[in-house]
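Task 17 of the worksheet. Students: predict the tertiary structure of the chain below and write it out as structure tokens. Keep your answer in the requested format; marks are given for formatting as well as content.
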Amino acid sequence: MKILVTGTAGFIGSHLASKLLARGDQVIGLDCINDYYDISVKYGRLERAGINKDNIEYNQLTQSKTQENYQFIQLKLEDKDNMMALFAEQKFDAVCNLAAQAGVRYSLTNPDAYIDSNIIGFTNILEACRHNNVKNLSYASSSSVYGLNEALPFSTEHNVDHPISLYAASKKSNELMAHTYSHLFDISTTGLRFFTVYGPWGRPDMALFLFVKAALEGKTIDVFNNGEMLRDFTYIDDIVEGVIRVIDNPAKADPNWNGKEGKVSTSSAPYKIYNIGNNNPVKLMDFITAIENKLGKTITKNMLPIQPGDVPATYADVTDLVEDLKYQPATPIQQGIDNFVDWYQAFFKA
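Model answer:
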């Protein structure tokens, strides 16, 4: 397949592109390479795929030096004219949209970035698919959409009408927009609610990265909600395997769906929502202990109240993922953290 993967300078996108290339797909990677976090990590991910940062020019395809089937383009999702031109030229078989303005707390201080990338940008993705006969679209949603919902584990059949951050609201909006295009234009759309992804090449604004960096520098870490957080930490390789199974199995209309009592996660249109999580939430303090186990040292902790926009617990019900795609993430937390620390120390020579 010829697949557009957006967000390929990002954490999940870079891993996904590598896995697709390894199995023989042709991949066009797209990313705006913004400075939301340390761009050296973004360029490092691209370099790993054979893309030299010195060869990157905005809206120009760059050929990988090491991957025959990989090209990269720096482009903003909200750049509608160039997005439409890219789709018209490349004739994609499938699109996986992982590009987005990420982060819950950042959405409290820079809301415009979320509207530009996550709303306007996603609209451009949908329109480009519509006008270029792309019938297979998967896209990143988030466990953040569950918001004020306290029923655990989080099910794709739960109501998610009460988000508590603009980031979460933008992801819920993506699901609604995708359904509309599935209904109107028969585009298969699948939303992926990721649960706290971690692993090598992870984002510098995420807890694992911050904790390991602080620990190696002998600094104190901030532990929110006094360590009472529960997170369904999901290892990057498990996430990518789930995404690939979704790409290979585009959403289909549910023949049993009806407007009176239909499931929330399916539709009479070719539309589907999946949770991709480990189905095994971990206490934040146990997560920190696993880091300490790997590093062989105790980390000094500053206990703080919960932050605005954060939810106290996440826990994925992955029943549909198992039943439909015969897959369930299963990487143990200690193994995943060990792999991250090994990568971090090698990349930063720490």
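Marker's comment: The first helix runs from residue 11 to 22. The chain has a mean pLDDT of 95.
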